[in-house]
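User: Predict the full complex structure for these chains.
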Amino acid sequence: MTSQGQVRRLLSLVPYLREHDGAAMADVARDFGISVKTLRQDLNVLWMCGMPGLTPGDLIDIDMDAVDGEGVIHLSNADYLTRPLRLAADEALALVLALRTLREVAGTGERAAIDRALDKLERAGAGPAASAQASVTVTAAADDVRSRVNDGLRRGRQLDLTYDGGSGGQTTRRTVDPLRVFVLEGYGYLEAWCHSAQGLRTFRLDRIPTVTLTDTPAEAHDVQLKDLSTGWFDTLRDAPVVTLRLQPQAAWVAEYYPVKQVLRHDDGTLDVSLHVRDPAWLDGLLLRLGGGARVLAPAAAGLSAARAAQEALDQYAALRL
Amino acid sequence: MAPRKTERILNLTICLLVSGRYLPKSRIREAVEGYHDLSDAAFERTFERDKDELRALGVPIEVGNFDPLFDDEPGYRIVASEFELPPIDLDPEEASVVGVAARVWQHASMAASTLSAIGKLRAAGMEPDTSQLASLEPSVSATEPAFETLWTSVLDRTRVSFDYRGVLRTLEPWGVTSSKGRWYVIGRDTDRAAVRMFKLARIDGLPTKVSRPGAFAVPDDLDLRRLAQSLAPREPTAEALVALRVGRAPSLRRRARSVPPRQPLPEGFEAFAVGYTEPAALAEEVSGYAADVVVLDPPELRQRVVDLLHAVVRTAQVPAGVEAS
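Assistant: Here is the predicted structure of the two-chain assembly.
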């Protein structure tokens, strides 16, 4: 932690501790997102600060016996720091963006609360000019779908939904127990126990055209939800690796999908490796790239796309358009 | 010695906050213990740096004359009403959504800024209970290396230059915007004297700050989403007639319009009209569905799809190590 970051935190810590006399070290550390050890170092610094002169009567007083004994904090003699410093531009904008991201997937009630909170933050100095300087768009569901999904989640009810399946390109009907709504890399998702598939499934919200809230209570499931901190790449870690050579016009693949290694050749082609869980997804990609990507390994991975292309060509020939 | 520096800066803040009037530098040097052991030159340097750091945190240090009779030496003060967060009274629902916001950013310094904001709100009495919203996990990441520099340049209005696909561009960055998980920066390209949008993933290396902070003004009516739309692909300008296999290609079907077929279709297909802007983009999408989508009209679009499909077949026939001509 830089001293600038520490100064910033201490200026909030003093009014916070005045408000929460006798707060437990662990609770304070959690509220500020720091370790108990860092909090202890913060208190050591605060203890040496105070009014000019720094005689014992001028210093901020912290009961260190209580800190080291019961693990609680009593702070006094800091009447000049009753309020925190106003929000700086980086804090206001980061918080506003986080709230706007949440708003894109939240239910109707939370949306209203977010709008009120944003309004109050703006009036408290998180100025409208600054908050116009960044925006996040999440590809998520239509309003009615989003609020019904959140209702199911909040009220613990099963959902009946239709889903435009990803690479296979089919619409399916599912009955699911909703477990979580999350946003990852710009898209909103519903994570749920799917009764049709008898397993944990992740549904992209923008691919759920319709959803109904049922009266059936959702069942409890002992399942491990995806760890979001590592992005998609990690969830695919165990999937087979396919290596492609991309022509320059297909180079966007390297920045669009999580690719493992990029080798750039002098002629502008790129070699990339990516994890492929669903062979149908790879077929769709190769077909879309129209020869812009060639499978280097495993050699057989590109054959089904070529077969599908031939089938489509035969169909065009038979139609005599 | 980081703790000593934090102590000194905090004591300086308190000193300027409690004095109530402008304090001259000489008086500050006496009052703040951390300045006692410094030579004249070292004190001048340290005091200037400390002031800069506090201002960077948003601490409003005012400069004025401490004594109206002697206006030769400037004085410094912090006015409490300018320093303090104004009252912000969040109800429990509002507090809980702010609490959830704490876990949104997956980018270290953005997460630190959010946490710091929420620390201030907690210090002002907010006590968020997020237990009702545990099943909501929004996240925003920014993995592009250029993000951090561009973000701070947007905040302090610093001009930047960067290598964009082999060309050096100089930009007054007005704002950053994210769509489908990719970040873009929008601003005035000073060499081209025009508003431009750049994709952060396509910036080579790191941007360089090339001006002092506050070097330009951002338009008052800045609307990033509208600008991003105007600088990105346009509305559909043409319409194609396609046949879709029943139950397939749902995302294409949803933005298409069902039409009566004008010619015999293969068994199990239905006719649709779909709008498009870029023939190449629609051809790629259609090719991705292989035999589930047939382009009926226009013939140029159909030819593009057929060319793509031929290329897929041809590419798969090339043995590894031999390039297609």
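The longest helix of chain B spans residues 299-317.
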